[in-house]
Amino acid sequence: MAKLAERSASKKGTTTQLPAKMFETSGYSAEVSKGLEDLERAVTLVISNKYNEAEAILKDKAESSFYHAVAYALIMFVQAALTFDRETIDRTHVVMQKALELCNKYRRATSVWNTFSDMWYGKRLDGYTSVELHAEVYYAECSLLEALLTVLQDESMVSLIKAGFKIRSCHSMFKQYHSWMEEVTSSTSSSQQPLATPVDKHFVSGVHLGVGVFNLAVSLLPNRILKLMEFVGFSGDRERGVELLTIGYHSKTCHSPLCSMALLGYYCIIAPYTGFGAYLDFTLPKDILATQLTEFPNSGILLLFSGRLALLQGRVNEAIEKFLQSIKEMSEWKELHIICYWELMYSYCCCGNWRAAAYYADILCDKSRWSRATVLYQKAAFLLMAKRSEMVESGSQQQSPVITDGAPSFDASDDEIREMMKSIWETFIYDLNVFTVL
């Protein structure tokens, strides 16, 4: 990634300078160049922990520019997914509807005959302008976010079915775009003649992002479900997904940061939690983090991923330091602290420091809306383990291989632990109220 900005030391009127380009914005009309430049600046601010400033830049033009609208919708979606706040989810839905409306406005109008032709022969994008290509891929991306938001907005079976159809529609769009790109590339290679108008690189990276994410997501499903998904048209090639996202990451386009985040999320969080972490080669995420942390050493998001990578490789002390530093740096977007608290809880659990683990479990009980029953159960289990360890040791201080000096601690009486265990079942039923519909 190209060199980016150094933050100003002043507090008032702080701005982020851009000595070099994160992605290419030249060769476009003034309107498109301005949209891409604002996206570049917003991405820089987000990585630099200045979420409010980035949101202000995007929100200012979200009513007129689909570039700003889709990026603003993405930020709102992350907030909604982290908080599960009903008001935030509803506001995000409104923003997404506006973004889809703007994207649709700039997409090329098609006749009924063209619609049927696209269904039979595949969508053709020959002769599309850069704006129309951008609108196509942004519409597919925003539609996917809207499908995921549908599940957060209404946890009924009907909403799940609607979301499933929307996701399949998004996958179909990305698949058609990718097929067209491959067809154009292969025909150009066979004729050994360059394209009169090369395919827009921002569009190409967006397609790589969409197809890559779908391949990775589907590949994580169990084999029986994977065969069914492939039967209905989905593809689940894990290596292909990583390859496409890696190409997108190195493309120096508006989708490069999203491709890098998708790769870091897969390697550092999703794959280990789904049982695929033992088979991973961490060379790629290490290279991505080394490159980006050089440009943004205080980025809360990058420090979070760096902590996850350290934890997966057994460097627990380093992981704890990274998570604590990430919390300190992400002062504007406290919703992301929840992820750090969760990781700190398990880091101290790996150390055998049960009271420190219970301390962060207690914080999650108060601040997190993710499965409170799970966190409450872990909190009670950690406290029981702490009491058992203290009884077994009976005063003998056994040196731990992991240093936890200065770690927080949490304590509770036996009666409080009993009450905690009693309330878990009621909380569990509340958290899983969606299954009453099933």
In the predicted model, the low-confidence regions spanning at least 5 consecutive residues are 1-20, 399-404, 434-438
User: How far do the termini sit from each other?
Assistant: 47 Å
Please report the number of helical segments.
18
Question: What proportion strand?
Answer: under 5%
Mean pLDDT: 81
Query: In angstroms, what is the radius of gyration?
Result: 24 Å
Main sheet, how many strands, which sense, barrel?
none
Pattern of helices and strands: HHHHHHHHHHHHHHHHHH
Structural class: mainly alpha
The coarse silhouette is globular
| Number of strand elements | 0
Helix content: 55-70%
Could you explain how this protein is built, in words?
The protein is mainly α and 438 residues long. Helices cover 69% and strands 0% of the residues. It is built from 18 helices and no strands. It has helices at 30-47, 51-60, 66-83, 86-106, 112-121, 130-153, 157-191, 201-219, 223-231, 238-249, 256-273, 283-295, 300-312, 316-329, 337-351, 354-367, 372-393, 414-431. Helix 1 (30-47) packs antiparallel against helix 2 (51-60) and helix 6 runs antiparallel to helix 7. It is globular.
Q: Any chance you could write out the topology, listing elements then pairs?
A:
Layout: H1 30-47, H2 51-60, H3 66-83, H4 86-106, H5 112-121, H6 130-153, H7 157-191, H8 201-219, H9 223-231, H10 238-249, H11 256-273, H12 283-295, H13 300-312, H14 316-329, H15 337-351, H16 354-367, H17 372-393, H18 414-431
Helix pairs in contact: 1-2, 2-3, 3-4, 3-6, 4-6, 6-7, 6-8, 7-8, 8-10, 8-11, 10-11, 11-12, 11-13, 12-13, 13-14, 14-15, 15-16, 16-17, 17-18
